[in-house]
Amino acid sequence: MATTTATKNTKPAAKPQGPKKPKVKEPDIYVWEAKNKKGQKVKGELKGNNLTDIKAQLRKQGYPNAKVKKRPKPLFGGAGKAVEPADIAVFTRQMATMMKAGVPLVQSFELVADGLENQNMRKMVLQIRDEVSAGGSFGGALRKHPKHFDDLFCSLVESGEQSGALETMLERLATYKEKTEALKKKIKKALTYPIAVLVVAFVVTGILLIKVVPVFAETFASFGADLPAFTLFVLNLSKAAQAHWWKILGVVIIASFVFRQARANSQTFADQVDAFSLKIPIVGAIINEATVARIARTLSTTFSAGVPLVEALDSVSGAAGNAVYRDAVKQVRDDVTGGTQINVAFRATGVFPTLLVQMTSIGEESGSLDTMLEKVATHYEAEVDNKVDNLTALLEPMIMSILGILIGGLMVAMYMPIFQLGQVV
User: Fold this and answer.
1) DSSP letter at 72?
2) Does the pLDDT at position 270 exceed 90?
3) What value does the mean pLDDT take over residues 209-225?
4) Pairing state of beta strands 28-35 and 67-70?
5) Over the stretch 61-111, which tens digit does the pLDDT of each residue have?
6) If we measure between CA atoms, which residue out of 134, 78, 71 comes closest to residue 105?
7) How many angstroms separate the CA atoms of 47 and 29, rounded?
8) Alpha-carbon distance 158 to 122, whole Å?
9) What is the pLDDT confidence band of residue 423, given thresholds at 50, 70 and 90?
10) 48 strand-pairing partners
11) What's the pLDDT tens digit per position in 330-373?
12) What would the pLDDT profile of 308-330 be if each residue is shown by its tens digit?
């Protein structure tokens, strides 16, 4: 009887794999335009998988003859635009509005995401929605994006969830973020305008020295007469600029890079820069008042949310934005932990203005510390606004004077020999 032997190295049968789940395509956004029953033009946006789907939705809404087209993608930066703090402020305000209107949380995320043009921001909002719809908390979903939502933001949202007052907390957070961003814009306005104008002035001066002055130098060489001292100085400056412009540019670029790296990697150096910035004439006063406003606004928001004072001061130190005030707030926190009244602790640092100390004292006595701090924040925000406007008005004539001295001086130096030659003739 013949026997058959099974091959020993026969491979076991592979386990059948289930069908791969197809990736869910994100619906496209279409823009439409139609006329209503009164003959008025109406337009809007709808999400759908294709053009037929959108037209079917519009027919149900009573617009059978609507013109529909897919919303074009932005040519520059639409998909790659980074999420900015201003985007977070808008998101917070829209969520607060939705929650106050009684819209469910998950649906609020969807409605807010639909109106966002920044695709990265929209993607992040939808990720938060998915976390919440899967059973997670709002605060926990935000903590998965620490680059855009700091501990203060997440803690306040979690506090609102636990107390059942999420819409109120989002309202406070929206106001806080809007005020903070407005303050940052004012500081940038105060610093960017003069720096930009001076950079342009020096670039124009460099071009004149390297390209224009040498043409005059060739003309002067044929005069055969002594040149004025000012003209000689400009010609020598032009020769130095032609020979070493690339070295000067390299030093500026390297110095900027080294400065940024040192500030990012050395806490000591960054603290020294922060301390120096407070001593700059005019600009230092603006930075001081802006920092006090930010501290007062943050402390008011956290304290009104029911956060214990010591924990609130921890959050304030992280949001101060300046090393001098950060260390001062930490000192206040330690003093308050030891039983000192907060107004006494503020005064002991020697950093905070008298108005903040006095308003804090009134707030402690009346039991309305958050209200008093909010008034302090509003006052200093208005002061920063006024100082920025005054600084801009003051700098305009100064900048014009600098431009006149630099560019006008070069032109005078070039034409002085021509004027002297005319007098001799």
Assistant:
1) P
2) no
3) 76
4) antiparallel
5) 777 778 887 766 654 444 457 888 888 988 989 988 888 888 888 888 888
6) 134
7) 5
8) 22
9) low
10) 28
11) 999 999 998 889 999 999 998 999 999 999 999 988 888 888 99
12) 888 888 888 877 888 899 999 99
Judged by DSSP in three states, 43 sits in strand
- 159/153 Cα distance (integer angstroms): 10
Q: Would you call 265 exposed, middle or buried from its count of C-beta atoms within 10 A (0-12, 13-18, 19+)?
A: exposed
Question: What contacts 105, CB < 8 A, 6 or more positions away?
Answer: 99, 132, 138, 166
Helices (H), 65-212: 85-100, 105-114, 119-133, 138-142, 151-163, 166-207
143: its two tokens: 């903590």
Q: Report d(CA 111, CA 94) in Å as an integer.
A: 9
C-alpha span between 260 and 258 (Å, rounded): 6
Cα separation, 95 vs 105, whole angstroms:
8
> What tokens appear for 84 in the block?
């900015």
Kindly state the tokens that stand for 139: 């605060």
What distance in Å separates the CA atoms of residue 337 and residue 317, rounded to the nearest whole number?
Answer: 15
Burial of 189 by CB count in 10 Å (0-12 exposed, 13-18 middle, 19+ buried)? middle
Tokens read off for 107: 């649906």
Backbone angles phi, psi at 47, to 5 degrees: -105, 140
Q: Is the Cβ–Cβ distance between 126 and 117 less than 8 Å?
A: no
Is the confidence at residue 254, as pLDDT, over 90?
Answer: yes
- Token couple for 363: 């707030």
Structure-block tokens of residue 4: 């058959």
Closest to 210 measured CA to CA, from 230, 252, 232, 240: 240
316 Cβ contact partners less than 8 Å away, ≥ 6 residues apart: 295, 298, 299, 302, 329
